[in-house]
Amino acid sequence: MRVRVASPVVVLGVLVLLVSACGGSGTPKRAASAEEVAARASHCAGAVRASWQQLANRIHAPVFCPSWLPDPFTGKLHDGRWNTIYSVARDRSYLMGFIWLEAGSGELHVNIRGYPGRTKVPICTDTEITGGKTTRTKVPCFDDRQGTRRIGGRTVTIYTRNQDADLWHVLYAWRYRGSLYTVSQHVTAPLTYAKVVQSLNRIVRGLDVIQPVKPAR
Predict the structure, then answer these.
(1) What is the residue extent of each domain of the chain?
(2) Do the beta carbons of residue 119 and residue 180 sit within 8 Å?
(3) Can you give the pLDDT at residue 42?
(4) What angle do CA 48, 108, 196 make, to 5 degrees?
(5) Would you give the distance in Å from CA 35 to the centre of its chain?
(6) Cα–Cα distance between 22 and 17 in angstroms, integer?
(7) Which residue has better confidence, 92 or 2?
(8) What whole-number distance in Å separates Cα of residue 55 and Cα of residue 86?
(9) Are 111 and 166 in contact (CB under 8 A)?
(10) What phi and psi, each to the nearest 5 degrees, are found at residue 30?
(11) DSSP H or E segment with residue 13
């Protein structure tokens, strides 16, 4: 009986394949979802990253740059077309809104916020007019908490009753280094609640943290 011995090169190649398949620990790796692959393939870069870096430098705090936003948004700030809300308050909190609207087709609206140095949900004023009488009540800007979810290494809290620019939005909020950050999207035709949640999951998975850079002296 003849016994054929494989060459060392072949044996080494087989071992490499086995180690790769098992992740080196004997435990098979989980296949990445389509959303995770898309988020990795599209990083915040170029003009998009530069625009968010400018914001981080302006407010002296980290910001979250989107690697992906629903089409047709690019994520670039001050683009003159899709970034229709660019607001930075005196307390350094910011609101970046992206809006697409077409008569007869629907609306697409995504907001990205940050509250440097604050982790509590901000307070808004709810105005109600009944019988000619105006009543103003202080309410949380984000309310109707729907639990938490682990996405992209972050624990986000989901809110479905929100105020001001986030009215009728599903909103995800998380904390990072002593600050509160949020992403929200409007639930409106042609989108359903499920589609908006799917979109928000992908947005959060693709967020890149950008740290502020001090200007060179």
Answers:
(1) 31-210
(2) yes
(3) 54
(4) 95
(5) 13
(6) 9
(7) 92
(8) 10
(9) yes
(10) -75, 135
(11) helix 8-22
Percent of the chain with pLDDT over 90: 68
- DSSP-derived secondary structure letter, 166: G
Q: What is the 3-state secondary structure (H, E, C) of 79-148?
A: CCCCEEEEEECCCCCEEEEEEEEECCCEEEEEEEEEECCCCCCCEEEEEEEECCEEEEEEEECEEEEEEE
pLDDT value, residue 57: 98
What is the CA 169 to chain-centroid distance, rounded? Answer: 14
Are β-strands 123-130 and 133-140 bridged in parallel, bridged antiparallel, or unpaired? antiparallel
Among 74, 78, 79, 49, CA closest to 64: 49
Query: What is the model's pTM?
Result: 0.79
R_g of the chain, CA atoms, integer Å: 23
Direct distance between the N- and C-terminal alpha carbons of the chain, in angstroms, rounded to an integer: 79
**List of residues 6+ apart from 189 with CB closer than 8 A:** 106, 107
- Single out the residue of 90, 111, 126 nearest to residue 184, CA to CA: 111
Residue corresponding to tokens 């693709």: 206
Give helix then strand counts, H and E, for the chain: 4, 11
Can you read off the two tokens belonging to residue 117? 């140095």
The full length of the chain comes to 217
d(CA 99, CA 129) in angstroms, rounded, equals 28
Amino acid, single-letter form, for residue 138: K
How many alpha carbons fall within 13 Å on the CB side of residue 30? 5
